[in-house]
């Protein structure tokens, strides 16, 4: 029988995505085996992340400065915006080394059954960006599942009146797949084969 404090730690680990009860228990016991100094460093790293990381006011990606590194980079093509579901997708695209535009993070996709409605996504700031800057192309790079397709259709409808070119990444990412887990060759192929919607 675990002590009350150990049980509480297991419960907290169990709340993390993808961590079941067994993994949570294994992590909690690992913490017990760590030195007090290691635990302190681990705790400080979590606190620092929560204190210093914020959302970029332009694209919605995580940053520690006024702008994220991509939005602040003058060598990036500011005329092209790649719309992604979350920041993890940016990491996947950046690994390919093939894309030199900017990004826009939606923080999810339309999924009414899960309570994710358009007003909860970072859509308003995307429309404001397109309205006030010289964006020539918006690439919709959402996961090719039902919710991703629904979100792409919704965004296309909102963006069409601006007269901006709207493209979608090509298949290569399987239907029902996740960009986050795709290899760089697949993502490169999807980017190269994007088409206008």
Mean pLDDT: 91
- Dominant shape: elongated
Compute the separation of the termini in Å: 58 Å
- Structural class by sheet pairing and helices: alpha/beta
Helical residue percent?
40-55%
How many β-strands, per DSSP?
7
| Percent range for β-strand residues | 5-15%
Mind summarizing the main beta sheet? 5 strands, mixed
Strand order of the largest sheet: 4-3-5-6-7
Order of helices and strands: HHHEEHEHEHEHEHE
Total helical elements:
8
CA gyration radius, whole angstroms = 20 Å
Low-confidence stretches: none
Describe the structure.
The chain has 197 residues and is α/β, with parallel strands linked by helices. Helix content is 44%, strand content 14%. The chain has 8 helices and 7 strands, in the order αααββαβαβαβαβαβ. The protein is elongated and about 60 Å long. The chain starts with a helix and ends with a strand.
């Amino acid at each position: 029988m675990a002590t009350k404090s150990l049980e509480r730690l297991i419960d907290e680990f169990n709340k993390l995505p993808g961590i079941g009860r067994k993994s949570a228990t294994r992590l909690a016991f690992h913490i017990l085996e760590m030195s007090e100094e290691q635990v302190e460093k681990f705790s400080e790293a979590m606190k620092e992340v929560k204190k210093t990381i914020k959302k970029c006011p332009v694209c919605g990606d995580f940053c520690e400065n006024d702008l994220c590194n991509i939005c602040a980079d003058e060598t990036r093509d500011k005329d092209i915006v790649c719309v992604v579901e979350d920041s993890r997708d940016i990491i996947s695209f950046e690994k390919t080394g093939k894309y030199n535009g900017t990004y826009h993070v939606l923080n999810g996709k339309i999924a009414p059954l899960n309570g994710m409605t358009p007003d909860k996504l970072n859509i308003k700031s995307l429309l404001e960006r397109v309205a006030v800057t010289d964006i020539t192309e918006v690439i919709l790079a959402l996961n090719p599942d039902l919710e991703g397709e629904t979100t792409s259709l919704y965004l296309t409808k909102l963006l069409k009146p601006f007269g901006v070119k709207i493209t979608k990444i090509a298949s290569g990412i399987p239907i029902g797949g996740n960009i986050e887990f795709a290899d760089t060759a697949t993502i490169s192929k999807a980017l190269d084969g994007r088409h206008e919607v």
